[in-house]
Specification:
Blueprint lengths: L15 E7 L4 H12 L7 E7 L6 H11 L5 E6 L1 E5 L5 E5 L4 E7 L3 E8 L11 H8 L8 E6 L6 H11 L5 E5 L9 E3 L2 E3 L3 E8 L2 E7 L2 E3 L4 E7 L2 E7 L13 H11 L2 H7 L3 E6 L12 E9 L6 E3 L8 E7 L1 H17 L9 E7 L3 H5 L4 H10 L4 E6 L2 E5 L2 E5 L3 E7 L3
Parallel strand pairs: 2-3, 8-9, 21-22
Antiparallel strand pairs: 1-6, 2-6, 3-10, 4-5, 4-22, 7-12, 8-12, 9-23, 10-11, 13-25, 14-20, 15-16, 15-20, 16-19, 17-18, 17-20, 18-19, 21-25, 23-24
Helix pairs in contact: 1-2, 3-4, 7-9
């Protein structure tokens, strides 16, 4: 009688994601720890690695150590002013200013994984057709790829890349951040290669969706206004949004509006506005009722007392709607909480998230909130034990409306789940 044969082991088709953080001061020990905890995930299709600037002198040693311990076919990563990941007790920890290494492994069945490194010189100019960008990435737009992008802050072309990818891949989510700089250099990692500059990224297509949350850390004050007259980044006339559009500017100067607004603020907000006043630019020309999160937040660079004009840290066009905003720890917490609540409310009939990435400005974290792990703990409050990893950036990449922007003082989350 023949011996019964053992049933064959079929690979699971369930997407899996695991994150591990080490605070060992030795790079060898840190690599051993994260690999030992993360390699329980079989046959990973993609790895994300984030290394703190405390290891700056050892960036070139990271990939050989990782590949020796856990051979990987697709990997991207970078250096950060701080990093975050999951501790052995399943808590997310943000490590700022100290040695830390974060490794995330993802098993992504039915997903095409396309990592890439781009130099600024290789980017098409903005007058190029979409095919030039598609050839650069190597993924057709009908595949609806989702992008994670990590760039050196010293490399030119990041804003052009975002515009080009939006042009070639409309509707695709792009998230990421700018790596930290320590001693004049940053670390970028793609597969087996260590790069000093450029952009590394990964395009994910197939049975995957990446939802983006962009918490810019501001709350609106006063009413929204329509830009009646502007030249490049100088706003000279504003009018109420319900005013009838005319061919000539008939509104008030921004300074006059600000002076009236200041009178209506309470003492605490008036004091905050002296230091933390920003301009929010609405990103939808059609949405009637604007909400928190509908604005792209930009710096208010200066005021001309003589003309009443204000300068904003971006180009503004007549007809756009703007609203003044304040930023502080309370506003940042309120903004992120509101966006997480809104996100959870929309997920009731969708597959559950399996993992997420967080790209936070170095101006947030403990320096802003006066307590550690604030943004990541708030994320866990709404999304439970969803594995989270990431780093503290010199600039954050994420969408507002239908376009992707480079932000400051922002926390961007890329939340991954199966499409079906």
């Amino acid at each position: 009688m023949a011996e019964p044969t053992a049933p064959s082991v079929q690979p699971t088709l369930q997407m899996q994601w695991v994150s591990a953080l080490s605070t060992q001061p030795s790079l060898e020990a840190a690599v051993q720890e994260v690999v030992a905890r993360a390699q329980r995930l079989p046959a990973p299709d993609l790895a994300f690695v984030f290394i703190s600037a405390a290891f700056a002198s050892e960036y070139s040693r990271l990939l050989p150590l990782l590949q020796a311990a856990l051979p990987l076919t697709a990997l991207i990563g970078c250096s950060g002013g701080g990093v975050l990941g999951v501790t052995p007790d399943a808590q997310v920890q943000e490590v700022e200013g100290n040695a830390a290494l974060s490794l995330t492994l993802a098993y992504l069945p039915q997903v095409n994984v396309q990592p890439f490194h781009l130099s600024a010189a290789a980017l098409p100019d903005l007058d190029s057709p979409p095919d030039a960008w598609i050839d650069l990435i190597g993924v057709p737009p009908q595949d609806k790829p989702q992008f994670v992008l990590l760039a050196s802050p010293l490399s030119a072309g990041v804003s052009e890349l975002l515009q080009g990818l939006d042009f070639a891949y409309p509707g695709s989510v792009k998230v990421g951040g700018l790596a930290s700089v320590n001693g004049g250099s940053s670390g970028l990692f793609c597969n087996r290669d260590y790069h000093l500059d450029g952009i590394v990224g990964v395009a994910l297509s197939g049975n995957i969706v990446m939802d983006a949350i962009v918490a810019q850390g501001c709350r609106p004050i006063g009413a929204a206004y329509r830009v009646a007259a502007a030249e490049r980044n100088i706003l000279t006339q504003l009018e109420p949004v319900d005013a009838e559009a005319t061919d000539s500017a008939t509104g008030e100067t921004p300074l006059a509006i600000l002076q009236t607004l200041f009178q209506d603020l309470n003492d605490a907000d008036r004091a905050m506005a002296q230091q933390s006043l920003f301009v929010g630019v609405a990103q939808s020309a059609f949405k009637q009722e604007l909400e928190q999160g509908d604005f792209l937040i930009r710096n208010l660079l200066g005021v001309d007392p003589k003309s009443g004009a204000i300068a904003v840290g971006d180009r503004i066009r007549p007809g756009q709607r703007i609203q003044f905003h304040l930023r502080d720890a309370a506003a940042s917490a309120e903004d992120l909480r509101m966006l997480l609540e809104r996100y959870v409310q929309t997920q009731t009939d969708r597959p559950a998230p399996v993992g997420a990435l967080m790209f936070a400005c170095m101006g947030r974290g403990q320096g802003l909130y006066q307590q550690p792990n604030f943004d990541s703990m708030l994320f866990a409050e709404y999304l439970g034990l969803t594995p989270l990893s990431g780093f503290f950036c010199n600039g954050e990449i994420g969408p507002v409306g239908d376009s992707t922007f480079l932000h400051g003082y922002t926390s961007v989350f890329g939340i991954c789940r199966p499409a079906r």
